[in-house]
Amino acid sequence: MRPLRRTDRLWRLLALGVTLVVTAACFAGGAAEEGRPGPGGQGTPDGNAEADGTMTVDEFQRDITGAVRVAEEYWTERFDASGERFQPIRRITAYQREGEVGCAGQPLPRNNAVYCSAGDFIAYDVNWAVAAFRQVGDAFLFYLLGHEYAHGVQVRLGIRYDFTIQQELQADCMAGAYLGDSVRSRALTIEDGDLDELAAGLRAVADDPGQPWFAEGAHGTAEQRTDAFFGGYERSLDACDLR
Asked: Is there a contact between 174 and 150 (Cβ–Cβ < 8 Å)?
């Protein structure tokens, strides 16, 4: 597996997918417009972004496979340590067109990645993901899959919140724990300066000023998201209020 890369566009790896919940059967955020973040930090890299050298489809597929493997190994080890058995996400599905894949009767939009609890699968718009991969690098894929796996773990643990922001900030924390623990175990490597870029990215994809914290699809302020992610990165899952 290749290391996380340092890149001026690394913050775009934080284009987080929304979670579809069976009981609500609705999106926690909308699809993004081209070139700008959407409600949950969702976005497509703009056409002026500088590519970092990761270009081939084979390379993309290898990194998707590697990201899935690392996430499964990480959560399997954590569940084993607590005396539980981790059931891997049932499948990872790529799609190209709006409505090609659905969750609980809802078609998935373009420029998106989701965890669908109804079918226990992760789905992503492959054109959007490849564009981000080419402009950001393989770090995008490892973070993206890690974040969506966190939503799957929330479902497995029976964690439910009244507000989207609670679910998403916890997933930020769990994603930070996944990355931090994987770096400490040397399953992933990170270069000098990457953490500063991640912090800048978290600020960039925070909710707009004035966004009500209780709004459907809210993900948190820059301070909240930064605190959640780096709390998990530095202190592992102990920081994430798992219950």
From this structure: yes
Q: Report the C-alpha gap between 232 and 236 in whole angstroms.
A: 5
Range of the domain at 22: 10-239
Calpha distance 196→8 (Å, rounded): 11
Contact 229, 172 (CB under 8 A): yes
Q: How far apart are CA 29 and CA 171, in angstroms?
A: 15
Q: How many domains does the structure of the chain reveal?
A: 1
Cα–Cα distances (Å) from 16 to 81, 111, 169, 215, in that order, read 28, 11, 11, 17
Say which range, 28-42, 84-98, 108-122, has the weakest mean pLDDT. Answer: 28-42
Cβ partners under 8 Å of residue 185, min gap 6: none
Q: What is the pLDDT of residues 154-185, one digit of tens each?
A: 999 999 899 999 998 998 899 889 989 989 99
Across 209-226, b (16+ Cβ under 10 Å) vs e yields eebeeeeebbbbbbebbb
Asked if residue 5 belongs to a domain, the reply is no
211 within some domain: yes
User: Does residue 4 sit within a domain?
Assistant: no
Which structure tokens are listed for 65?
């496979």
Does residue 35 have a pLDDT over 70? no
pLDDT one-digit tens code per residue, 178-226: 989 989 999 888 866 667 766 765 776 678 888 999 998 898 998 998 8
Residue 3, domain member (yes or no): no
Provide the pLDDT for residue 84.
93
The 8-class DSSP code of residue 112 comes to -
